[in-house]
Design goal:
With 275 residues, the chain is an alpha/beta fold. It is 43% helix and 12% strand. It has a four-stranded parallel β-sheet, with helices on one face. Strands 1-2 form a two-stranded antiparallel sheet. Strand 4 (192-197), helix 8 and strand 5 (219-227) form a beta-alpha-beta unit.
């Protein structure tokens, strides 16, 4: 049996000539008929071929095992090297060297743009929800200490608020109040862009309603898509800074009446909109 040892990995490799060697003509002939070998000499030859082939199979199995172990080792080495490469590239990334004043200009550009589709709240996208800690602007403040300091120093970063009250069933009242209070606190005295939607519950008894009413004098834009009866929650609120108003409602036999009443009540208190 002729084998070659690889000088790099040490794996024994069978010569290609052995791989391509065809069966003997006599073996081919015997396979095509149903007759036994001619004599004891032929039987001995066939038994020798069985022994040699068995030994070769065993040798090849050993070589395959060694080759597979080598491949696994090389793959692990490659993966580890790739991880180190990514780590070093991350350390050298230019964003680490950006001055804080430039970060302060970039962060507000990450604010989601609420298009007309999102204003209807019909196709709710959880990536827009302001109470989710994985969304803007919370995610910017979770990267590192420097980014957090920059994010907390930018009230306008926290001034676009998108709340869908029908999605907070898994949050306790305490969690809602905590996250909501941080939002309004971090927005400082900035004008607010408010987008409010909800399920059938509305906002009448929601723990965030008090924060909403307290912040209403700072609302510059307001888009609501709530149950018709829930719109009455805004009747006694003041909106001196409001410049843009969009109102939707959800169902109910008296939807139109509620819609007209709340629109009039809000519009009458908004000098920029008029009645």
């Amino acid at each position: 049996m002729s084998q070659i040892c690889c000088p790099t990995c040490g794996v024994l490799r069978t010569e290609p000539s052995l791989i391509d060697t065809p069966s003997s003509p006599r073996v081919v002939e015997l396979l095509s008929v149903n007759t036994p070998p001619r004599d004891d000499a032929e039987i001995n030859d066939l038994r020798r071929m069985v022994q040699e082939s068995s030994a070769l199979v065993e040798s090849l199995q050993d070589q395959l095992k060694t080759a597979q172990e080598t491949v696994s080792t090389l793959q692990a080495l490659r993966d580890n090297t790739v991880r180190r490469l990514v780590d070093v590239k991350n350390i050298l990334h230019p964003i680490r060297s950006l001055p804080q004043d430039l970060l302060a200009e970039i962060f507000p550009l990450c604010t989601p743009i609420i298009d007309e589709t999102m204003r209807d709240f019909d196709e709710y996208d959880p990536e827009f929800d302001t109470l989710c800690p994985h969304n803007h602007p919370w995610n910017l403040s979770h990267v590192c200490r420097r980014w957090r300091k920059t994010a907390l120093a930018l009230p306008r970063l926290w001034s676009t608020i998108y709340l869908n009250f029908g999605q907070y069933g898994n949050l306790t009242n305490r969690q809602c109040v905590y996250k909501g209070s941080l939002l309004f606190e971090r927005s400082a005295n900035m004008d607010l862009s408010m987008n409010l939607g909800g399920g059938e519950e509305g906002i009448v008894d929601h723990p965030l309603t008090g924060f909403l009413e307290a912040s209403a004098p700072r609302w510059r834009t307001l888009n609501v898509h709530l149950p018709s009866w829930s719109l009455q929650s805004f009747s006694g609120w003041e909106f001196p800074m409001l410049r843009e108003l969009g109102i939707g409602y959800q169902g109910g036999t008296d939807s139109t009446d509620y819609y007209i009443d709340i629109f009039r009540n809000v519009a009458n208190s908004v000098p920029f909109l008029g009645a």
